[in-house]
Amino acid sequence: SCSSILNPEFLQVSFALFKTFKKFLQSLYSKIFESSLAYQYSFSYSSIYLIFLKILLGVIVVLLFFIIIVFLIHRIKSNIEYKELREAGYINKYSAGEYDLNIYRIGNKKSKHKLIGISGLGVNNYSIEMSFVNEKLKGDYEIIYIDRAGYGFSDDTSKIQTIEQIVSDYRNVLKNAGIEGPYILMPHSIG
After folding, report:
1. Angle at alpha carbon of residue 131, lines to 76 and 156, rounded to 5°
2. Which of 69, 102, 141, 172 could form a disulfide with 147 if both were Cys (CB 3.0 to 4.6 A apart)?
3. Partner residues linked to 182 by β-bridges
4. Distance separating alpha carbons of residues 85 and 39, to the nearest angstrom
5. What is the pLDDT of residue 172?
């Protein structure tokens, strides 16, 4: 997200990485320049080949270093975001049988009807995307979003996700979460 990129810690690490990369390129350039002067009168293809290999190795090392730094920053940020989402109530796992599904509940728990939000294919954060709808409906209804297996914060499964399997998962997780009907389905797209 944009806020992650503008984070002062991220900018500090990025600046330090840039300075290190700049020093590396300067030293690499000076070595190449000095070696080209030394070999000015004894030019051979093997010396060019060795210089090319050194440059290639240097680029690979820098890229690997950069990938490792980005990976570590991503892991740290992901853990922080996961904790924030859990504290905000977006992560609540309940058993659907062999795996757990995530449920997000918002609104009036004493309402007569419960709206069950069902995401479409490829929508991993349906409960967050529907926040504008939640604000309008939460006074009159309880809204429950279930992340199907492999989506959002639900566990993944190797089971084929047929309509029957998904419906069975939803019924099990609603029962295990103690959420009783009547339900009004609020599907999105192929949900």
Report:
1. 50
2. 102
3. none
4. 61
5. 93
Yes or no: say if 190 and 161 are a contact pair by the CB < 8 Å rule: no
> Closest by alpha carbon to 91, among 147, 132, 141?
147
Q: Strands, E, within 99-160: which ranges? A: 100-107, 114-118, 142-147
Contact 104, 144 (CB under 8 A): yes
pLDDT, position 150: 86
In this structure, the strands spanning 142-147 and 100-107 are antiparallel
Identify each DSSP E strand in 2-140 by its residue range. Answer: 93-95, 100-107, 114-118
Which residue has 């070595």 as its token pair?
Answer: 31
Q: Enter the pTM of the model.
A: 0.63
Q: Residue 67 and residue 122: Cα distance in Å, rounded?
A: 27
